[in-house]
């Protein structure tokens, strides 16, 4: 779990998936939430595969309390994968003990023995009638699970970044992802308490 109380904290984050999923937008919203909402420093580096739509793409985000002098992510503390190709490409770079989040219908974390968080973000977006909002659902899930940015800052950044007229739908998608993340954390807490007999 990513701690949010440490002084001078710095987090390297990679959002990855394929073109057309809104991966870059998710990274941009995350950075905006950190800077405008939480008053921290942030950088974004985006990378596309050979073809934009359908090709592998990633958003590398760094969030820190101090100035960021090098904007490229070397060893992600947090890796959020919305495609198998993205997982395969970045999992070897993730920091030991880092936090992995996946879309459970699109990514099989083969060969990964650590703990991870999963959400059916694409399926949930389909149920909302907008498959294009899977990135916003994943962002809500990411916010709840990692605590990297505050929920209010992230929700506000979503509202300011999505196309006019879609704010309410996107806020709903963000809340769905966030609620799912909160439920997952509560479930884990209960399980841990059960194990210790508390």
Descriptive account of the structure:
- The protein has a single domain, classed as Pyruvate-ferredoxin oxidoreductase, PFOR, domain III (Pyruvate-ferredoxin Oxidoreductase, domain 3, 3-Layer(aba) Sandwich), CATH 3.40.920.
- The N terminus is likely disordered.
- The longest helix is centred in the last third of the chain and has 30 residues.
- It is built from 6 helices and 6 strands.
- By secondary structure, it is α/β, with parallel strands linked by helices.
Question: What is the rounded distance between the termini?
Answer: 21 Å
- How many strand elements? 6
Mean pLDDT: 92
CATH topology-level fold name:
Pyruvate-ferredoxin Oxidoreductase, domain 3
Number of domains: 1
Shape: globular
Give the radius of gyration: 16 Å
By CATH reckoning, the class would read Alpha Beta
Strand order in space, largest sheet: 2-3-1-4-5-6
Give the ordered list of helices and strands: EHEEEHEEHHHH
Q: Give the helix proportion (percent range).
A: 40-55%
Main beta-sheet annotation:
6 strands, mixed
CATH architecture call: 3-Layer(aba) Sandwich
How would you classify the helix and strand content by structural class?
alpha/beta
Residue fraction in strands: 15-25%
Low-confidence stretches: 1-7
């Amino acid at each position: 779990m990513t701690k949010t109380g440490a002084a001078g904290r710095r987090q390297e984050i990679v959002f990855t998936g394929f073109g057309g999923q809104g991966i870059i937008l998710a990274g941009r919203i995350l950075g905006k939430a950190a800077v405008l909402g939480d008053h921290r420093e942030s950088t974004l580096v985006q990378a596309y595969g050979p073809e934009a739509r359908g090709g592998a793409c990633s958003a590398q985000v760094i969030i820190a309390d101090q100035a960021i002098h090098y904007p490229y992510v070397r060893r992600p503390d947090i890796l959020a994968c919305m495609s198998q190709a993205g997982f395969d490409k970045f999992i070897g770079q993730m920091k030991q003990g880092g936090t992995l989040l996946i879309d459970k219908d699109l990514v099989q974390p083969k060969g990964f023995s650590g703990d991870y968080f999963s959400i059916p973000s694409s399926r949930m977006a389909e149920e909302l009638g907008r498959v294009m909002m899977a990135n916003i659902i994943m962002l809500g899930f990411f916010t709840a699970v990692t605590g990297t940015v505050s929920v209010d800052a992230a929700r506000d950044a979503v509202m300011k970044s999505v196309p006019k007229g879609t704010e309410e739908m996107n806020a709903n998608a963000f809340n769905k992802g966030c609620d799912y993340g909160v439920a997952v954390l509560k479930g884990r807490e209960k399980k841990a308490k059960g194990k210790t007999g508390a």
